From TrEMBL:
Oxidoreductase listed as a keyword: yes
Function: The pyruvate dehydrogenase complex catalyzes the overall conversion of pyruvate to acetyl-CoA and CO(2), and thereby links the glycolytic pathway to the tricarboxylic cycle.
Higher taxonomy: Eukaryota, Metazoa, Chordata, Craniata, Vertebrata
GO cellular component, as recorded: mitochondrial matrix
Superkingdom of source: Eukaryota
Pfam families with a match to the protein in the record: E1_dh (PF00676)
Catalytic activity: N(6)-[(R)-lipoyl]-L-lysyl-[protein] + pyruvate + H(+) = N(6)-[(R)-S(8)-acetyldihydrolipoyl]-L-lysyl-[protein] + CO2
Cofactor: thiamine diphosphate; Mg(2+)
Listed name of the protein: Pyruvate dehydrogenase E1 component subunit alpha
Length: 382
């Protein structure tokens, strides 16, 4: 036993020393943003601390693994219906969240699993929502496209419709004078929608604290941006609204640009537009194999050259901010969390039929709701 104790102590000392030897922070040169109607852009020299790096790594890895598990469950027909995966775009969500507060507001389209997680949802709640179970974040009634939590307004299934809603949230922020802002996300596929330009106009007129973010993953469904848009400079589309074009595969670029945009909004200058150049590894949705309009080589090239997780990992390892073993340990913990969540999502019961119409209204006496025919009566409880 004494020998074992000594060995254990020696290991503890070694591990303590190893941790002490790590660089606690490092400065990185990041890609310069393209700017529109701005005198200067975000900083190109940024500081990353070891703790931040480890946190971003864990969050991105959790999102990646969660989406891969969703892919697996979908192919097993355990998840049904619409399902749009976010793998490849993790740096966007993590970078944005790193520069805003949880008390700020966020609304996005239907590729929403990642944002549900960064906004405070748990992997367990997200996976159970995907399988339509009682323990899901929307009690199993929303599914992949309709997840919500505090200060997160979904998951919206209608292309572009979340943009005016986001401006409405920003109007509420301004009205209440609480120095909060709304991040309003849409894709390159939605960028040609008329309602987006109507929203730009109102937001600029009323100087709303809203960051419009176009997550440009290069394809709207199966149509490349070049075939869909007469101008692919999405960051200039606001015309009278300043814009930034950002490397959406680099978490530090997204973080700096969002910090810059948030400062712009909070100082009362009104809306700002950001285009994040990113890429999705999966097809548009699970019904799209994703290789009929782009080559496997193209996907592989993005994976090998600009994967957001690999880029962060390489930076941390080459600057002695973490060890390979430590990151592997995080991977193991993440895998376990995902497996446990998947186990829960496949064993948790489905919501009963009598709960189908609940929560239609807030704070109202219970009422009768007509079912699929005049004789089928269901009850709705607030």
């Amino acid at each position: 036993p004494r020998k074992l104790t000594l060995l254990f102590s020696a290991n503890m000392i070694m591990s303590a020393r190893t941790y002490a030897d790590f660089t606690t922070q490092a400065t990185f040169e990041i890609k310069k943003c393209d700017v529109f109607k701005l005198d200067e852009g975000p900083a190109t020299q940024v500081v990353l601390t070891r703790d931040e790096g480890l946190q971003y790594y864990r969050t991105m890895q959790t999102m990646r693994r969660m989406e891969l598990k969703a892919d697996q469950l979908y192919k097993q027909k355990i998840i049904r219906g619409f399902c749009h995966l976010y793998d490849g775009q993790e740096a966007c969500a993590v970078g944005i969240e790193a520069s805003i507060n949880l008390s700020d507001h966020l609304i996005t389209a239907y590729r929403a699993h990642g944002y549900t997680y960064t906004r405070g949802g748990t992997v367990k709640e997200i996976m159970a929502e995907l399988t339509g179970r009682r323990g899901g974040i929307a009690k199993g009634k929303g599914g992949s496209m309709h997840m919500y939590c505090k200060h997160f307004y979904g998951g919206n299934g209608i292309v572009g419709a979340q943009v005016p809603l986001g401006a409405g949230v920003a109007l509420a922020c301004k009205y209440q004078g609480n120095n909060e802002l709304c991040v309003c996300l849409y894709g390159d596929g939605a960028a040609n929608q008329g309602q987006i330009f109507e929203t730009y106009n109102m937001a600029a007129l009323w100087k709303l604290p809203v960051i419009f973010i176009c997550e440009n993953n290069r394809y709207g469904m199966g149509t490349s941006v070049e075939r869909a848009a007469a101008s692919t400079d999405y960051f200039k589309r606001g015309e009278f609204i300043p814009g930034l074009r950002v490397d959406g595969m680099d978490v530090l670029c997204v973080r700096e640009a969002t910090r810059f945009a948030a400062d712009h909004c909070r100082s009362g200058k009104g809306p700002i537009l950001m285009e994040l150049q990113t890429y999705r590894y999966h097809g548009h949705s699970m019904s799209d194999p994703g290789v009929s309009y782009r080559t496997r080589e193209e996907i592989q090239e993005v994976r090998s050259k600009s994967d957001p997780i690999s880029m962060l990992k390489d930076r941390m390892l080459s600057n002695n901010m973490a060890s390979v073993e430590e990151l592997k340990e995080i991977d193991v913990e993440v895998r376990k969390e995902i497996e446990d969540a998947a186990q829960f999502a496949t064993t948790d019961p489905e919501p009963p039929l009598e709960e189908l119409c609940n929560h239609i209204f807030c704070d109202m006496p219970s009422l009768e709701v007509r079912g699929t025919n005049p004789w089928a009566k269901l009850k709705s409880v607030s």
